[in-house]
Amino acid sequence: MTSVLGYTVRWERRLHAPLGLRFGVPVLSVGLAFVVGAAVLAANRVDPLRAYSQISMVFLTLSGISQALSIGAPVLLIAVGLAIGFRTGFWNIGAEGQYLMGAVGATWIALFVPDIPPTLVVPLMAMGGFVSGAAWASGPALLKARLGVNEVLTTLMTVYIALQLVFYLTLGPWRDPLVPAFAGTAPFPAYARLPRIPGTSIDPSITIGILIAIVLYQLMQRSRVGFEIRVVGESTSAARYAGIRYLRTILLGMIISGGLAGLAGMVVVSGSAGYLRAEIAVGYGFTGIIVAWLAGLNTLAVIPATVLFSGLKVGADVLQTTSGVPEAFTVLFQAMIFIFVIVGELFRLYRFRIIRTLSA
Amino acid sequence: MSEVVAAVLARAMETGTILLLAALGEIYAERSGVLNLGVEGMMLLGALGAFGAAHLLGNAWAGLAIAVLIGAVVSLLHSFMSVTLRLNQVATGLSIYLLGVGLSGFLGKPLVGVTVPGLPVVAFPSVQDALSKVPVIGLVLGRLLGGLNPMVYLSIALAVIMWFILFRTRWGLNIRSVGENPSMADSLGVSVFRIRYICVMIGGSLAALSGAYLILGLLGSWTEAPAAAPVTAGRGWIAIALVILAAWSPLRAILGAYLLGGVEALQYTLQGFQLGIPSQFFTMLPYISAIVVLTSFSVETVRKRIGVPAALGVSYSREE
Amino acid sequence: MRRIIKSFPGVVANDNLDFQLLPGEVHALLGENGAGKTTLMNILYGLYRPDSGQIIVKGREAKINSPRDAMQLGIGMVHQHLKLVSTHSVAENIILGLNEPRFFLKMDEVHDRIHELGERYGLPVNPQQKIWQLSMGERQRVEILKILFRESDILVLDEPTALLAPPEIGELFAALRRMASEGRGVVFISHKLNEVLEVSDRITVLRRGRAVDTRRPSETNTAELANLMVGRPVLFKLEKKPFSPGAGFLELQNVEVMGDKGLPALKGISLEIRAGEILGLAGVAGNGQRELAEVITGLRRLTKGKIYVNGLDFTSSSPLDFLSAGISYVPEDRQGVGSVASMTVAENLVLREYRNGPFARNIWLDFKAIDEHASQLVSEFSIMTPDTRNPVQNLSGGNLQKLILARELSRKPKLIVAEHPTRGLDVGATEYVHQRLIQAREQGSAVLLISEDLDEILTLGDNVAVIYEGKLVGLLSAQQASIEVVGMMMAGSSGG
Description:
The complex is a heterotrimer.
Chain A: E1 3-4, E2 7-13, H1 19-43, H2 48-60, H3 62-87, H4 95-112, H5 118-147, H6 151-171, H7 205-222, H8 224-234, H9 236-241, H10 246-273, H11 284-294, H12 299-323, H13 328-349, E3 350-356
Antiparallel strand pairs in A: 1-2, 2-3
Helix pairs in contact in A: 1-2, 1-13, 2-3, 2-12, 3-7, 3-10, 3-11, 3-12, 4-5, 4-6, 4-10, 4-11, 5-6, 5-10, 7-8, 7-12, 8-10, 11-12, 11-13
Chain B: H1 2-31, H2 39-57, H3 60-84, H4 89-108, E1 122-123, H5 125-132, H6 137-144, E2 146-148, H7 150-168, H8 170-180, H9 182-187, H10 192-219, H11 235-245, H12 250-272, H13 279-296, H14 300-306
Antiparallel strand pairs in B: 1-2
Helix pairs in contact in B: 1-6, 1-7, 1-10, 1-11, 1-12, 2-3, 2-4, 2-10, 2-11, 3-4, 3-10, 5-6, 7-8, 7-12, 11-12, 11-13, 12-13
Chain C: E1 2-8, E2 11-17, E3 26-30, H1 37-44, E4 52-54, E5 56-57, E6 60-61, H2 67-72, E7 75-78, H3 90-95, H4 107-121, H5 136-149, E8 154-158, H6 166-181, E9 185-190, H7 193-199, E10 202-207, E11 210-215, H8 222-230, E12 248-258, E13 264-274, E14 278-282, H9 289-296, E15 304-309, E16 312-313, H10 319-324, E17 327-330, H11 345-349, E18 360-361, E19 364-365, H12 367-380, H13 397-409, E20 415-419, H14 427-442, E21 446-450, H15 454-460, E22 463-468, E23 471-477, H16 483-490
Parallel strand pairs in C: 3-9, 3-10, 7-8, 8-9, 14-21, 14-22, 17-20, 20-21
Antiparallel strand pairs in C: 1-2, 1-4, 5-6, 10-11, 12-13, 12-15, 15-16, 18-19, 22-23
């Protein structure tokens, strides 16, 4: 309530957010990020119009779309999981680590568990990825639920630990004996790879991700568990008052959140990559946070948000090769979208009025 | 043997200073009630600014000054979001972190492979001479008084001054009150907004200074790092854990910083011993110890004794 | 203060209000909750800014934009919710916000002055103690000393008696009279008629943001003041059938628990509540009432003792077990515990029953049933809401309380634990709640009524238990219980 030149901005809580704003705020946020991004590009002597037209080509060509979809699957899975996790009030910002551990779990099944019938390898890898990601997330979850340990810090710490574990494995016991100069496992056998959708270069993981998003949306809105998650996320004391088992609910949220991040790791090693290397940690876990937020923690809205973000990522990669724009431009762009989204949230919740301050 | 001890201690202090600087700033921010989770991002921007400025101006001290300035400016953005707009402080902190990662990666690209002047080391030869006559202890102390980065001594002085201001002056009383009970402080005419802005700015400046010290004093070169593991390597987050370990006291932060710095320093020494343990497990140590610190200080009885600022992370508005 | 107008979204809190305070008088502001008393004083103290109107202090028009401005004009305020930092010392709390000393704190001088002031006004405290070590009454003294330390000559006290036991109220009134006799002006905000008549020189009655009238105590009486306050004659009697208790429903044996600060909050409580009984629990705030309520609803773990519900051992049962055993709970914290702000009226109305039929079918919820249930309760309890899909954060405090009462009473409970059920409600709603509680008793429910309002406890309760520092210091039947006897017990004396 500071007044400037006799005028004060007054905010009033809205009773209902108009539908227009619910869609308008995210769209505007992305738009503003484009405007600021243009300035950043121009300052680096890159013609923003040309850059943006190259990015938009991603959404208009078949090869661009299929590339976007192939990187879209992990982001989608992570963001859907995070949306549920955040709803329980659990600030899991370590999805990147759970993603890496999911990749580790899937790799272990693909390369180091003998005698699995080939047809079962991929399903088992998916399970391994999910379980490893969920297990990795359950440490911070238990610490938070039992002792109230700040999960923002612990989940982030586990990213670094997971990264070192992957370094250790790929340089040590799991290193490809044929290419010892490289930190990485041997390529997966064909039966450990996700099949391609015929006639394209993409695998079916994106469709599975979309299916999961839809099912979870229904569960959140219409089921008892969804109700419990929503109550827990809002207020733990209200949840206890309502007779909800807090620990079980928060662990469930965390298992979904960490498990889907782990599944995303499996999708990458079994799909586009075909091996385990530390380089698969490209920041999907952080992108997922922003996507979940942009979607208002609504798992259905995560789908279009993912398409947008993965398209931008592919576009930025194109820019990198054609105009030498650093890869980090994507992260910067995402950070800007994030800032605009959280600030825009205010306009959804409050009405702003500029009033003349009393000058009596 | 005392040579090894002295070397480990010196290294613990030098690496601990990174954490100390950032934690000191975060203590002020949190004491005023603002949780700044963007420390890592501010460190990155400080490191970038310092490195760029030192390269362009040919002077490391100018780099530090630029870093402080950048920290203050970025803090303005953070306080605007968290104090004025009262946004969720986890989200605002995270956005500053991602901004730091993105911006430093984007603008830092041309700086890869560039050389900069470093910070001079400081020594006290006469004291060292005097100490060298005392066996063992003298040698260790002598090492700590000679050839260390000046920021080590500066940060200790800063911690003492910041402790004094916080607990023995009117400003400090105002800061602590705003973090404990903002509506009370407001009703007594203490400006919650001004104090929070200033404290967040102190926090950001020191975080940026810490990043500058890291890059100019210890690393010496800018490398292109993946988004998941930027050059600051999570030290900003460890500094936030250190604030809890220090129970929000600048003096205790010194000890905590050298303890956590020691964990990091130890890994280099232990790797030298060829224990047959892969180096990655040593690299994990600082992160694991941060989790251990957080866990042991979250146990209820301990938490009650150390006294978290009551209004930490809670935005304040008069008419609600 | 002239023609003060202040509106908040949806309500006009002060509607063209005039108020005048003379030096040397204790002036009471009397009104129901929500009448605009606190708003008016917050404007005087610079916390709110009026939409229009004038404030004249000592003959000059004043612009008060912040508490700092108010303090410079010699205005000090003791808020209803004490504004103290519990981890700081008394002295630190008192000097906060002063311009002197400029930088270094000189605590010795401060300690001396606090001693001196405390003696002069009969408000003794130890300046070096931390606030959390003090009782509520002592904390309030600190608040008053804070104002005296600043040498303010206009003092505003917002509902200062809510936290005090009757003997402490006497001491407070004596201190207020002494301040007035020194020429200071004192504003005493209250909704309690007797207190207002006892201490003040003049009484201004507010109703719905307007000043209805100003009277001297000698010219008026409780009935007239109540009439002015509410706008219609008020019944002081409630229809109640004679007390005929049924079987014991809940029994506590020697219960001990820890409070939030890790200190013992209940020290060996034994208690029985029977079907068809309203047991009133009297006590000054913070003596273990909330912890007791949480024990009875399964929300707080015992460190010692036993709980029996219907004869079954419930000592280590979950909140859900207590809930399913038919125990309803109207918690003190309506926003944080009793409801979920972002969820709808309908969802909040099934917050404790959602898992049972007809609202749930296997893993799914039946929103049609939930909505029908909500519409029925909204009309039965006249909850003001545009529709049942409205998030409850849009409801006013009184409406939210009605929603919680509707949910808890409609469960056909065997025991209702009602914590301050009428706080913040207007007289009409209060009467309604009282009727519903009596109705529940007549249908055979047990009721544990926790309240700071002794009148409420004495009119509704069949029996009255008094709690002091985590112990039950007395159990009386309604006939034996008088304000005086219970008041003494609330202050720690175990009575006769």
